[in-house]
Amino acid sequence: MTESILVNIDDKEVAVPKGTLVVDAAKRVDNDIPVFCYHPKLDPVGMCRMCLVEVGTPLRDKETGEMMFEENGQPTINWMPNLQTACTMVVSDGMCIRTTTSQVTRARKDVVEFLLTSHPLDCPVCDKGGECPLQNLTMSHGSSESRFLLEEKMNIEKHVPLGDLIFLDRERCIQCARCTRFQDELVGDSVIGFDERGRSLQIITHSDPGFDSYFSGNTTDICPVGALTTTDFRFGARPWELAHTPSVCPHCPVGCNLHINTRRSGQDGNWSIKRVMPRQNEQVNEIWICDKGRFGHHFVNNSDRLTAPMVRRHGELVETSWDVALGLVSEKLQSSNGSIAGIAGERLSNEDLFAFRNLIQVNEGSVSQWPGLLGGGDLVQKVGVGVDTDLAKLGSDTAILVIASDLSEEAPLWWFKVRQAATKLGASLDKSRAALIVANARETKLDKIAKYCVRYNYGDEVRTILALSHAVSDGNTGIMGSIAANDNDDVIAAAKAISAAKNLIIIYGGEGQSYAASNALAQACSNLLIAKGNVGKKDNGLIPVWTHCNTQGAWDMGVKPAGVSATEFVADADVILLAGADPVGDGEPLPENSFVVVSELFKTKTAISADVVLPAQAFVEREGSYTTGDRRVQRFYPALPCSENVLPDWEIFQRIANEMGVGDVSAGPAAVMRQISLQVPQYRDISYENLAAVEEQWPDIGGEDSYYGGTGFQNTGGLGVQTLSLIESGFSVSPGDVDPIGLATGELLGVPVTVLYDRGSTFVKSEIMNSRISDPYIEINVGDALTHNVTDGDMVSLILNGKERELIARVSNDVPQGAVLIPRSMDGPMLRGVVPVNINTIDHGSKE
Amino acid sequence: MSSNTANQTLRTRYSAEVKDILKRYPDDQKRSAVMPLLFLSQKEGLQATVSVMSEIAQILDISITQVASIVGFYTLYYSHSGGKNRIQICTDLPCALRGADDFADKVCEKLGVKLGETTEDGEFTVESVMCLAACDKAPMFQVQNGDGITYHERQTISDVQAVIEQLGNAEIDKSPEGAE
Ligand code: SF4
Ligand code: SF4
Ligand code: FES
Ligand code: FES
Question: Any chain B CB within 8 A of the CB of A449?
Answer without folding.
Answer: no
